[in-house]
């Protein structure tokens, strides 16, 4: 079992939620053998277990992964990855052209960081209390929140990204990796920045994100029932 949230003893070997998390992930591989276990699932299961009993957490995991926002990513579908990378690049170029150019120059593509952010609904890169804010918004408003959160995090990291440290791939990867959790430590500030990004984003781009989300929802197929209730 990959250990989510290393700072929390709940999920370490012998911890009170370790076995439940392992059982949920194992059950999911039987429920969806076409998907199996994919890296990142343990973070979703762990967050749910912090709030729900084991069975309800399993139901929640099934329904989350079956959402059009992440199903294609967990199926490892290239078109789902490429589509989200393209939309992110478009929004980033509009919102933060200097940062977009810096990422392009050093060779950091969205596939190298954004997809993991989406697949874990930000529970891997952020503290659990901060990620919970993103989850709340995502469950209310859908996939557009994931894009706006990405831009908000880049905005928090803008000075570092444009500094000498951000002039090389290794430095940028660290800024958007291990350093991000310490920088994004205020849920109110992050929420405000997410809302600001959404307020500025062109309606046409927001509509495109929604259209893709709807299209993937319509095309999603499960070997059995589509979701639990």
Describe the structure.
It holds the Pfam family RabGAP-TBC. This is Rab-GAP TBC domain-containing protein. The protein is mainly alpha-helical. It folds into 2 domains: 58 residues, putative rabgap domain of human tbc1 domain family member 14 like domains (Helicase, Ruva Protein, domain 3), CATH 1.10.8.270; 141 residues, Cyclin A, domain 1 (Orthogonal Bundle). It contains 14 helices and no strands. The longest helix has 18 residues. It is globular.
Could you outline the blueprint of secondary structure elements for this entry?
Layout: H1 18-31, H2 41-51, H3 54-65, H4 71-74, H5 78-95, H6 97-106, H7 114-119, H8 128-141, H9 144-156, H10 158-161, H11 169-175, H12 180-183, H13 187-200, H14 203-219
Protein name: Rab-GAP TBC domain-containing protein
InterPro entries: Rab-GAP-TBC_dom (IPR000195), Rab-GAP_TBC_sf (IPR035969), Rab_GAP_TBC_domain (IPR050302)
GO molecular function: GTPase activator activity; small GTPase binding
In angstroms, what is the radius of gyration? 17 Å
Number of helices: 14
CATH C-level name of the largest domain: Mainly Alpha
Strand content: under 5%
Inertia-based shape: globular
Give the class from helix and strand content and strand pairing: mainly alpha
Please give the CATH architecture of the largest domain. Orthogonal Bundle
- Contiguous runs where pLDDT drops below 50 for at least 5 residues: 222-226
Largest sheet: none
Number of strands: 0
- Distance N terminus to C terminus? 27 Å
Count of structural domains: 2
Which sequence of SSEs, written as H and E, runs from N to C? HHHHHHHHHHHHHH
The CATH topology label of the largest domain is Cyclin A, domain 1
What oligomeric state best describes the polypeptide chains here?
Answer: single chain
The CATH homologous superfamily of the largest domain is termed Ypt/Rab-GAP domain of gyp1p, domain 3
